[in-house]
Design goal:
Apoptosis, Tumor Necrosis Factor Receptor Associated Protein 2, Chain A, Potassium Channel Kv1.1, Chain A, 5-stranded antiparallel β-sheet
Length: about 525
């Protein structure tokens, strides 16, 4: 680059008009102007770093700056401003570069020389497509009795959730395809909830019950799919095999044992998301507050109230009990037990009260064999089970979460013979979720339930529940007529009902696929 010519400043006029020439600013004025200019450049944020060489620096006078500009590898001059320009009149160069700012001794020009571009903070994102996987085990007991239900009719598993959608396994004992004339059994996986263009991978496994581990597996997961995952367009869409297994071979195979088949289904729902997680993370352990409060209960440290239950003493803390139960809060701070260090409980057994305290302090159910044992006996003594007694305690002390836990335990044992008694129990202790499940199950299996001993108990002791059951039956009929998958309730009467003692919905659904 050649030397910069010194343009005549516009503020300088002819010497005849100003014989003495323009007044020269002092060194202090020049320093202040340079500092103001520097502050302006910093505010504009065009530049990462720069050097100011103004005419008050001694080395500028020996012309070293011109030599520096001549030798600089990036010496392209972008723009030139007279130093008389106010900082507000400066504009950004077109190229976002840092600059070396120099001043000219006689005319105070400002020269921008590009150095290196200023880069913003780098950003990144990552799109991740993966599968959310879940499995369901479906046991078909009484295979020989299921044969002959008809081509295209199936036995369905309970719905299970994977990736935010409901799924179900359909087993066709006589096959799905009429052309096969019941030569094969068919197995399908169906989308059982609302959804549009749900993409998923599937795996169906017929379990080898001999212990050899030679299962029959049909899987998407262990092979490359040319067209990608399978797409289910809408609710009721299915994927599976019309010719899953030749029936005569199945009946003599290791897959059928004690008239029972076991099918495992794995669903992998395809999801895509932008992963903005940091490269490093800190693991936060699960809360252990329940363990600490549990130790407080076990050690009896600082306890201030004693409960006497059938002669057995339990030490506890009023503040903890009051914080968890509004009933205890009223008793201790608003009622007659405020200053009473001992309270006698007459309507509860010691092991039930112990489980109640365990929940209050630890927020978990007690691990008790009696509590976890099956309650599916078909006698009115269901109310004498541990789960039923703890349900009553949760109602007494207004503990809704404990009530739901007990409802969940009781729900596992709903069957044709037990549903009437569980329904009566749920109604007595305002267990609304359990009651709703019982009503729906009883409606779907009405004929068989009406023949049970438990239904006689229901008629004698809970007549109002019969009207609620009829309303539920009517609702099931509407669902059937509207195209739902539930079998018609009244069709059960023409079939003679189902007298099997079953604990899940193993019923024949009409052409659900």
């Amino acid at each position: 680059m050649g030397k910069c010519k010194r343009p005549t400043p516009k503020t300088v006029k002819d010497a005849t008009e100003h014989p003495e020439g323009p007044s020269k600013p002092s060194a202090l004025d020049r320093l202040e102007a340079a500092n103001q200019f520097l502050a302006k450049i910093m505010k504009l944020r065009w530049y990462q770093s720069f050097v100011i060489l103004s005419n008050f620096f001694p080395f500028w006078q020996n012309k070293s700056c011109l030599g520096f500009l001549e030798s600089h590898p990036r010496k392209k001059i972008l723009s030139c401003f007279p130093s008389s320009s106010s900082p507000s009149s400066l504009t950004s160069p077109k190229s976002e570069t840092t600059a070396l700012v120099v001043g000219n001794k006689s005319e105070d020009h400002v020269v921008f020389v590009p150095l290196q571009p200023r880069l913003g903070s780098p950003s990144s994102s990552r799109s991740v497509t993966e599968t959310v996987n879940g499995s369901h085990n479906f046991t078909i007991k009484g295979y020989s009795l299921a044969k002959g239900i008809g081509v295209g009719k199936h036995i369905a598993s309970d719905n299970f959730t994977v990736g935010g959608y409901q799924w179900a396994i359909y087993f066709y004992p006589d096959g799905k395809n009429p052309e096969d004339n019941s030569t094969y059994v068919s197995v399908f996986i169906a989308l059982a909830s609302e959804g549009t263009d749900v993409r998923a991978l599937f795996e169906l496994t017929l379990l080898d019950q001999s212990g050899a581990g030679k299962h029959k597996v049909h899987s998407h997961f262990d092979r490359s799919l040319e067209s990608g995952p399978y797409t289910l367009k809408y609710r009721g869409s299915m994927w599976g095999y019309k010719r899953f297994f030749r029936r005569n071979m199945l009946e003599s195979s290791v897959f059928l044992k004690d008239d029972c088949l076991k099918i495992n289904c794995t669903v992998g729902v395809v999801v895509s998301a932008i992963d903005c997680s940091r490269l490093h993370s800190i693991h936060v352990p699960e809360s252990d507050i329940g363990a600490h409060f549990g130790m407080l209960l076990e050690n009896e440290e600082c306890s201030d109230v004693t409960f006497i239950v059938s002669g057995e003493k339990f030490h506890a803390h009023k503040l903890v009990l009051a914080a968890r139960s509004p009933v205890f809060e009223t008793d201790f701070f608003d009622g007659m037990d405020e200053d009473n260090p001992e309270i006698v409980i007459t309507d509860m057994e010691p092991n039930v009260f112990k489980a109640l305290l365990h929940y209050i302090y630890r927020d978990t159910l007690v691990e008790d064999e009696d509590f976890l044992a099956s309650t599916s006996s078909c006698t009115p003594s269901l109310s004498d089970t541990f789960a039923a007694k703890l349900l009553a305690a949760s109602e007494k002390y207004a503990l809704p979460r404990l009530r739901l836990m007990c409802e969940s335990v009781l729900c596992r044992d709903i069957s044709v013979d037990s549903v009437a008694n569980i329904l009566a129990l749920a109604d007595r202790y305002h267990a609304s979720d359990l009651k709703s499940v019982c009503l729906k199950f009883a409606a779907e299996n009405l004929v068989a339930v009406m023949r049970s001993d438990g239904f006689e108990y229901l008629k004698e002791n809970c007549p109002l529940l019969q009207s609620e059951l009829l309303k539920t039956v009517a609702g099931c009929e509407e669902e059937f007529s509207g195209g739902g998958k539930s079998r018609s309730v009244w069709a059960q009467f023409s079939d003679g009902g189902d007298t099997n003692d079953r604990s899940v919905r193993q019923q024949t659904w009409e052409n659900g696929g």
